[in-house]
Design brief:
Layout lengths: L2 H8 L8 H4 L2 H6 L1 H4 L2 H18 L4 E5 L3 H17 L3 E5 L2 H9 L3 E2 L10 E4 L3 E2 L5 E2 L6 H9 L4 E6 L15 E5 L4 H12 L2 E4 L16 E6 L8 H9 L4 E4 L1 E2 L3 E7 L5 E5 L1
Parallel strand pairs: 1-2, 1-4, 2-3, 4-7, 7-13
Antiparallel strand pairs: 5-6, 6-12, 8-10, 8-11, 9-10, 13-14
Helix pairs in contact: 5-6
This protein binds ribose-5-phosphate.
Ribose-5-phosphate binds next to helix 6 and helix 8.
Amino acid sequence: MTFRRVIYNSISSCNQHLKSVYFKPREVHRCVAIKSKMSLNEAKKIAAYRAVDEWVKNNTAVGIGSGSTVVFAVDRLAQRVKEEKLEVVCVPTSFQARQLIVENGLVLGDLDRNPQLNVAIDGADEVDKDMVLIKGGGGCLLQEKIVASCAERLIIIADYTKNSHKLGEQYKKGVPIEVVPLAYVPIREKIQKQFGGELKLRMAVAKAGPCVTDNGNFILDWNFPQDVNFHWSDVNRDLLMIPGVVETGLFVNMAQKAYFGMADGSVKTQDK
Ligand SMILES: O=C[C@H](O)[C@H](O)[C@H](O)COP(=O)(O)O
């Protein structure tokens, strides 16, 4: 097995689609499984580039989100830092984000030294009409929410498949909920009883057993009932009251603006 194949196989037990952006287009063409993602990647790229161009200014601290769309944002940020000699400190939301910052030669910060960020730029699994987000499809919700809460603005970058009227319309994997491992069974039962739906312990892909987050926790993916009109702010608060729930992938009243890369090459924006 070649070194590149080992890397390809090892990318993310939690987030398979990251593979498509870690490999150059030339290599993507060779792999049938990720070839169909090309237009989505172009959509992610135009959204990410536009958001970085509009929101990252000189002498600022920027939260760097996680996932496949953020790869393009970091790429653009690195270009701008080089070309415009921008001074920007980047605070990561995951191990993946930390690696992206370091590998792109950007200045790595942390919340100890940069507790207040000018902006955080992050992806989302779904964005509804009220700008409520589902995040955590790649298992990075906890640090993402902390970093977003420290930023003056949370700017979302995504492709057109994330743009929904109602949560659950496009993203079918449910709301990720990060939980302390020893409590996952009682938490699963409590949520099922209180809200209905089904919760699945997220399993790792290239590892036996469950997906373990950067914080050493498990993830329950809550496939919530589609026929209930949830008030997401209340649901989020109630979920967080359950002992052992560390964080939810529901981001309510956090994002101010979303950029969606569209299939026709345009970028659609949505404001809170
Ligand atoms: O846990 C992962 C993060 O919340 C991502 O921002 C989210 O899953 C969107 O990722 P992507 O840009 O790969 O669609």
